[in-house]
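Q: Structure for this?
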Amino acid sequence: MERRAYIPQETARRLSLYLRMLRRLRQEKVRIVSSDQIRRFLNVSSVQFRKDLSYFGEFGKRGVGYDVELLAKEIGKILGTDVLHEIILVGVGRLGSALLEYPGFLEFNLKISEAFDRNTRKVGKVCGGVRIRHMRALRQVIKKRNLRIAVLSVPVEFAQEVAEELVSCGIKAILNFAPVNLVLEGDVFVSNADMASELESLVYKLKQKNNNYSLTKKRSIVI
Amino acid sequence: MERRAYIPQETARRLSLYLRMLRRLRQEKVRIVSSDQIRRFLNVSSVQFRKDLSYFGEFGKRGVGYDVELLAKEIGKILGTDVLHEIILVGVGRLGSALLEYPGFLEFNLKISEAFDRNTRKVGKVCGGVRIRHMRALRQVIKKRNLRIAVLSVPVEFAQEVAEELVSCGIKAILNFAPVNLVLEGDVFVSNADMASELESLVYKLKQKNNNYSLTKKRSIVI
C-alpha cells in the first residue's frame, strides 16, 4: 500500500480517534462501518474521514463501508501502536498511582512498565502491577531497557529538574502532568496533559457561545 | 480596548499558555517580559505572539516589552478566567481524588466545589476540601448552584450514562477522563482528557522523527 511520508499532526490526532472507535467496534463484533456511522460516532464528516485516510491509501468500498479489522490494523501501523511501547512513570502520588492503574493505556498498546519515586516509603510497593523503584535506579533502568517515553507526575516544583534528568538519561518524549511549561534542551517531545488548560478552554467555549452564561459566583479578582 | 468577537480555538489555546507563563512571571516578581523571553519560554515566535494579541488590541512597547500584570489581566478577561468558575466532579476514584487535590486549578480561577460518587462508603468523606455527595443529590445541587461545567472521572463503562445524566441536569461542558467517545445530544462541549491518546501522539512523533527508533520490545500483535 502506498503511503505518504508526512502526515499532519491534526490528521494523526484524528487517526488516533478513528482507531479508538474501530477498536470499540471490534470488541462489539462489528465487521463493517459506514461513513454515516463514523459521522455519528465521532462528529467527523465523511469527507474529512476519507481525506485523512487518503494519506495512506485507498480504503472502503463505495456503498458498502470500511472493514473494521483491516482499517484498525493499518491505522495502528501508521501511528506506531501496532507494537507494544513500554513507558516509565516518575512520581507515584495520587495522580501517578491512578495512571499506573488506568486501564485505557493497554488498549493503545502502551504499558507503564517502570515507576519511580523519591519517597522511600513508596519504594518496593506494587501499584497497577508495577513495583515502584527509587529514583536512584532511574538512569540504569532507562539505559538497560532502552526506554524512550516517560510520564511525569511529580509535584510541580520538581517537574523541571526531574524532566532534565529524564532527558539526560535518554528519554525522548515526556507526557507532563505538572502545571508548568518544561524548557528542555535537545530533541525532546513534550506533551502537556494540562487539565487546568483543558478546563479553561471549556470555560472559554461556553463564554463564546453564550455571553449570558451566568457564572455560579461572580467575583472580581484583583490581579 | 477594541476587541474582535471571534478568536480561533488555536489562538485561545495559546492565550491560555501565555497566561500561565505570565502568572508564573508575576509570582517571580517579573514586571516586564520581552518577545525574546516569550520565544525562549514557550517556543512561540514573537510574530505569532503579536498576531495572537492583535485579536484584542495593542500591547507592548517596541524595544521595551510587555507589562506582565496588564497582559495577564487582559488575557484572563478574554478567556473568562478573570472570575472564579465552580466545577463539579463525578467519580471519586483514584483519578477523581487526585483531581480534587490537584493544586493547578485554582491558579486558573477554577475550583472543583462539588464531588459526587455512587459508592456510599465514599459519601460524606472529605477530599481536597470537598465533601463527597451521593449521586442522588446530583440534579438538585447542579440546579441550585447553577453549575455548568463537570469533570467526569467515572469508570469507562459508566461514562456515557453519567454524561447523559449530567446533560439532563443542565451541564454544558464536560471534561471527560474516561477513554470513550461520549455521544451527547444538545449543545454540550466535551473535551477529552485522553491520556492514552496523548501518549499515542508522542509515540507517533517519535516514529516520524526517527524510523530507526528502537522499540523496547518488538512484538507483533495480531489484530
